[in-house]
Amino acid sequence: MVEVHLGDITRLQADVIVNAANRHLAGGGGVDGAVHRAAGPELSQACREIGCCPVGEVRATPAFSLSAKRIYHTVGPVWRGGNLGEPELLSSCYRQCLSLARREGMGSIAFPAISCGVYDYPPELAVEIALEQVQDHLDRGSPPFEILFCCFDEAMAVLYRQQLEPLVRR
């Protein structure tokens, strides 16, 4: 099952909340700041202990004050025109999160629109990549089977719903 939600990702009921993090896992603005604020000060300490996360990879922490079990911190690419490996790196963010959720036995995972905020990834392209990776994962028949896309505004939610519609009919 794939669903699109509008609102605050930290309030979703999911085993895993994905954080669109920066390389230093230091908290910041947007989704990253919201996740850090909602999870509490223990998250900052856990992230300091991890150190950093390269672009396209994932690091996991407990969810602390969130209702989720885990927070997966993934660092999306900054958009620089698309010829510097941005699509591959963004694909890797989704693949690695889904793979880790499968290995950890998680049943549900909530994604923000990775790289679509201050990293300026074109939303239409980012949504296409996100849905491709999710569809590939679901086609393999492995958990997590409940995948949520949490959008910060209605325009982004509409993009997900439009691109998701043909997949639902397959």
In short:
This protein is an alpha/beta fold and 170 residues long. The chain has five helices and six strands, in the order ββααββαβαβα.
What does this structure look like?
This protein has helices at residues 30-39, 41-50, 86-103, 123-139, 154-168; strands at residues 2-6, 16-20, 58-62, 70-74, 108-111, 146-151. The chain is of the alpha/beta class and 170 residues long. It has a single domain, classed as Leucine Aminopeptidase, subunit E, domain 1 (3-Layer(aba) Sandwich), CATH 3.40.220. A hairpin with a 7-residue loop joins strand 3 (58-62) and strand 4. Helix 3 (86-103) packs parallel to helix 4 (123-139) and helix 4 runs parallel beside helix 5 (154-168). The longest helix is centred in the middle third of the chain and has 18 residues, at 86-103. The radius of gyration is 15 Å and the shape is globular. The mean pLDDT is 94.
